[in-house]
Amino acid sequence: MPADTDLAPRLAASPRTVRTRTARAPRPGRVAGYVGLVVLAAVMVFPLLWLILTSLRPANDVFGGGLIPRHISLSAYVRAWTELDYPRHLVNSVGITCLTVVGVVALATLAGYAFAKFQFPAKEAIYVVLLVTLMLPATAIVVPLFLELRSLELLNTRQGLVLVYIGISLPFAMFLMRAFFETLPDELIHAARVDGCGEFAIFWRVMLPLARPGVATVVIFQFMQTWNEFLFAQTLLQTPERHPLQPVLYSLVGEYSTDWTVLAASLVMTIIPIVVVYVRMQKQFVAGLTLGAVKD
Q1: If pLDDT is split at 50, 70 and 90, which confidence band does 112 have?
Q2: Which residue range(s) make up the domain with 54?
């Protein structure tokens, strides 16, 4: 009986309590890693924070005060919305970007599925030729595209700009979609064929829903690329009323002076659509980036 009494305190001590008592302090390497990540995050966030705070400053207090503005003013947003004809150019950007994203996603999914699951003559040669176009810098093809659109009477039109965006963006999107479709098992296609599905039905009903992470990745990349593109929009659209936002924002940078508050306010409003698209498709995007990281 006394022996049982002596063992009672030991039995009462749970493993969790023992682990808590013997918990070791964080390792210096891990603490240094956390500190480095915090510093890196601060460095990355600071330009965006400065941009937002600058857009809230009065026009005469951009570089004279501290980081936090002494007076909050929304006049820069009002001026950017009215003086730049911001709504018109915002509609232009939204229309051009949405048409480009739809066209690229539609063609890239079809082409990626064909290159991943079909066998046809010169398949690898065609694929390599398409990938080689990714190595061409934009400045090397802007003049040939200008001449080609002029010969097709599509110069200075939004339709011509959308076709250019689709043409230059399709190889990379097709490359991504082929990689995603290659991760899907061929047994699904064979089973669908046994059930009597046609090739397009297999693509639309079976394979494409499983490739949603890849589609989300293409959508986000393509939306950001088209929304922020400047060179082709500035060169191929010669009428100011048809310009998207990027050429208009560049026009605010003067040779001798720049209205930094209006420029900052315009940039903040321009960032919002990209943030909205990313937040809406964040889960699929992360899944698309991690797909294939773990293999069976």
Answers
A1: very high
A2: 27-73
